[in-house]
Automatic annotation (TrEMBL):
Mg(2+) binds at residues 135, 161-162. It comes from Anaerocolumna aminovalerica. One of its GO terms (molecular function) is magnesium ion binding. Homodimer. Coiled coil: none annotated. It is an enzyme of class 2 (transferase). This is tRNA 5-hydroxyuridine methyltransferase.
Length: 218
């Protein structure tokens, strides 16, 4: 936890209740240890969507569809979501959850590895997504970034979740267990790149497990 637990609990106590079907989905996902966006991140995402008023959202990392369904509650009329997932069991659950939510063509689920799908999308629909939410394998963010840049127009917003990794990203490499060193260095490389790209303005926000908010300016 990056932010003091007491403060997080207080902040979350002020959050408005989710619609009942999302509350149920959140409960089930947490019970099944499926990693979904935290309460604080939910609120932040809701505000960013309300500010940006996107036309097309792209999500990398669907899991069982919680965050897609959450975003669909707050996106403007006419907006659609394309979301990518590769794990068969999660895909099945996501399909079921989308069907039950009766969203029709508002949500498109793309099945397979994000790197391949992103690169195909970049060819078929360049600069088509004005709001991109990255919430997949953290070690791959750096690989996803060049494809994401081919999909994000000027003025588009890129949100990346879990960038502070419970604060460990700020620790020296030598204090990180050998097992976690690759992810540690890849995340640092991602954050350095993102904050030094001339095409982007980026802020690292200590919300949830750390979120970057980037706006494409060039
Ligand atoms: C943190 S979960 C997503 C949670 C979801 N955004 C939510 O909040 O409800 C990350 C998901 O990304 C998927 N994932 C990881 N690497 C991927 C890849 N290369 N291609 C597609 N999906 C990937 C995982 O299978 C996992 O379900």
């Amino acid at each position: 936890m990056i932010v003091d637990e007491r403060i997080t609990d207080y902040m979350n106590s002020l959050v408005q209740e989710l619609p009942p079907y999302l509350r149920e989905l959140e409960k089930t996902a947490l019970m099944e240890s499926i990693p979904i966006i935290r309460k604080e991140t939910q609120t932040f995402l809701k505000v960013l969507i309300s500010m940006k008023q996107p036309k097309r959202i792209l999500e990398v990392g669907t899991a069982v569809g919680f965050s897609s369904l959450f975003m669909s509650e707050y996106m403007p009329e006419g907006c659609s979501i394309t979301t990518i997932e590769k794990m068969p069991l999660r895909l099945e659950k996501a399909k079921k959850n989308f069907m039950e939510a009766n969203l029709g063509e508002k949500v498109t689920l793309l099945e397979g590895d994000a790197l391949i799908i992103l690169s195909n999308l970049a060819k078929s629909e360049p600069f088509a997504f004005d709001f991109i939410f990255m919430d997949a394998a953290k070690a791959q963010y750096m690989n996803f970034l060049p494809e994401v840049m081919k999909l994000l127009p000027i003025g588009g917003v890129l949100i990346t979740d879990n960038v502070l990794q419970d604060g460990t990203v700020a620790e020296s490499r030598y204090s990180i267990t050998r097992r976690d060193r690759t992810i540690h260095s890849r995340m640092r490389e991602y954050l350095f790149t993102l904050t030094h790209m001339e095409e982007m303005e980026t802020s690292i926000v200590p919300v949830g497990d750390g979120v970057t908010v980037s706006v494409r300016i060039k």
